[in-house]
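Methods — Computational structure assignment.
A single polypeptide chain was analysed. Its primary sequence is given first, followed by the predicted tertiary structure written as structure tokens.
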Amino acid sequence: DRYGANDVHVVYPGVEQKTIVPKTVQEHPTLLAVGATNKRKGLVDLIEAFHLVARHNEKVQLQLVGPAGNDEENLHQSIKKLPSEIRNRVHRLGFVPKEYRDQLINNATILVHPSHYEGFGFPVLEAMATATPVITTTGGALPEIAGEAASKVCPGDVEALAGAISEMLTNEELRKSFAMAGIDRARTFTWQQTAETMFNLYASLP
């Protein structure tokens, strides 16, 4: 629309295809969010949603992985306002090496990606590739990337986010369903396909 282009080709990035490792049985279910603490990532929404969920689920934990961004202080204050028994279940891990990050994604009960806007959304596909069920939003490209293989809510809707988390935590069959759908979805985003599509696009130019 902006540039008046009438011949547009979208080439999707790929995601590393993982060998599915069996999930370990967890005494404490874990929600994981991956990404820099920028405002558009919706992490303050997640803290508020976690508060609603954790009041009724005494075991659920929240892990936040990623470097500090432009909303780090706001996020810190949001966590600080939580009741101590809930605040103690929020773990701000910051930046971690890729191998550890991959392990956290694989071990998470649910990956929650509450972003208000994404141009792509790699963590969503990275979780799907390891059979970790995903809850995300309809912000930006996320619906296009996740398809029907993730639970989606409107960006910024804290109550809907909390509801989706609670439902998936208590419904094992739903988690399994999204895990299986996620594996199939992630397999459609390969770097081989990215390279072939780019090659064919360049080859088609006059």
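Note: The beta strands are 30-34, 61-65, 90-94, 110-113, 134-137, 151-153.
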